Amino acid sequence: MKIFITGGRGMLGRTLSRHWSADHTLFIADLPETDITDAKGLGEALDRFAPDCVVHCAAMTNVDRCETEREAAFRLNAEATAGLAEACAARGIRLIAISTDYVFAGNDSGDRSEDDPIAPATVYGASKAAGEEAVRRLCPNHIIARIAWLYGAGGPSFVHTMAKLAADEPKRTLKVVDDQVGNPTSCDAVADELTAVLARPDLRGTFHMTCEGTVSWHGFAKEIFRLLGYTELTVDPCTTEEYPRPAPRPHCSALSKAKLATAGLPAMPTWQEALARFVKSEWPSA
Question: Which of 103, 108, 128, 243 is most buried as measured by Cβ atoms within 10 A of its Cβ?
Fold first, then answer.
């Protein structure tokens, strides 16, 4: 298969390339060579490569920066996504668009399903929700894959940040937020699920692709340190209010994966299984 990956040099894009390069022909679309906000240039790149599928990973994902750079966030996450969806539909190309838990406000407890109404509480979430709407409206042959709390080889990610803090001062005491919960998810787990999606050209719609199980950032950090062997490091819980940020963080980012089973797709691994595999591969000596 010929696969065109936008944002191909980002963390998820790199992982997809590693998973797929042996079996598929890939076009890594990223700056400076490919600018997806340039409709003409994007169309020419699609025509030259003639992909069977586009996997759209490119996005402005810095949640706090989106709050202060709203125009830039909507230009990339909404307008460029709409242009890509239109270009794919015109050429008969399947589109797999990566989205986020931030399309939900995250103020309620319990897992959100794919069919729950969205209510973004941030500029980032609103821009990604607008991108989702454009994909549904403009490109019938699409998959929208919502992911959250992502980490992968090389980072940047929460896992890498915690690992560096521990390595710099292994006997320190850290405070980590304990009143935000979600599904920590490895890029490898997402890549495995998308590999199954590639084999199902009949599949359409929105799917949640986060790892199974829910934990707070505090619990996630403690498991990272345990796997890395930092037994003398102390991790104290704190509240969101103790660490205010420009963009509000959802208190519950947990996503239901029931639709994967309904579609006959593989189950996502638990967050603990995925994290253990990742730590072993990223830090072999741990």
Answer: 128
Whether the ω angle into residue 32 lies within 30 degrees of 0, i.e. cis, is yes
In this predicted structure, the answer to whether residue 37 has a pLDDT above a threshold of 90 is yes
Quick check: is 124 catalytic?
Answer: yes
Q: For residues 22 and 191, what is the distance between their CA atoms, to the nearest angstrom? A: 14
Helix (H, G, I), strand (E, B) or coil at 41: helix
Residue whose structure tokens are 């199980």: 213
Mean pLDDT of all residues in 128-147: 98
Tokens 């495995």 label which residue? 192
The pLDDT, as a whole number, for residue 286 is 80
Q: What is the length of the chain?
A: 286
Residue 148 φ/ψ, nearest 5 degrees: -160, 155
Note the pTM of the prediction, 2 decimals.
Answer: 0.97
Q: Which of 124, 151, 230, 243 is catalytic?
A: 124
Residue pair 254/112 in contact (Cβ under 8 Å)? The answer is: yes
Say if strands 150-151 and 142-147 run parallel, antiparallel, or are unpaired. Answer: unpaired
Q: Alpha-carbon distance 153 to 256, whole Å?
A: 25
CA–CA gap between residue 120 and residue 103 (Å, rounded): 5
- Specify the residue for token string 């202060």: 68
34: left (phi over 0), alpha (psi -120 to 50) or beta: beta
Identify whether the C-beta of residue 178 lies closer than 8 Å to the C-beta of residue 218: yes
Phi first, then psi, for residue 97 (nearest 5°) are -105, 130
C-beta of residue 220 within 8 angstroms of C-beta of residue 210: no
Locate the domains of the chain by residue range. Answer: 2-152+183-213+254-269
